[in-house]
Write a structure and sequence with these properties.
The relative contact order is 0.12. It contains five helices and two strands; from the N terminus they run βαααβαα. It has about 110 residues and is mainly alpha-helical. About 55% of the residues lie in helices and about 5% in strands. The protein has a two-stranded parallel sheet.
């Protein structure tokens, strides 16, 4: 396996009951130490450009692969989001949601 070149989309929901704790989590996840460790362990590209100067991080980043390029990315992303949302709301199990998302995505792309 390897990491994926993409973004680090972090945010805090406007109606979060724990905005202070959420901000602390964002600060932790975006800290240099946290991103260095994650990048070295997974190959994911850190959002902090300076970390790419580390030979270990740079070597791990070189093994990362691009997300599959598909013209229908928005539609496929919407399929995944809908099923993931059902799992997060407890309407279906995570396994069932991902199986349904995969099946619907395959049907869509075929």
């Amino acid at each position: 396996g390897g990491g994926c070149k993409g973004s680090w989309g972090l945010g805090i929901a406007r109606r979060s009951p724990h905005p202070r704790q959420a901000w602390q989590a964002v600060q932790y996840l975006t800290s240099a130490a946290s991103q260095r460790h994650f990048a070295e362990q997974t190959g994911y590209i850190p959002s902090r450009q300076a970390l790419l100067e580390s030979p270990v991080v740079a070597a791990a980043a070189e093994q990362a692969v691009l997300r599959p390029a598909i013209a229908e990315y928005a539609q496929v992303s919407s399929i995944l989001q809908r099923h993931l949302s059902q799992a997060l709301r407890g309407q279906v199990s995570a396994a069932a949601a991902m199986q349904a998302a995969a099946a619907e995505t395959r049907r869509f792309l075929n």
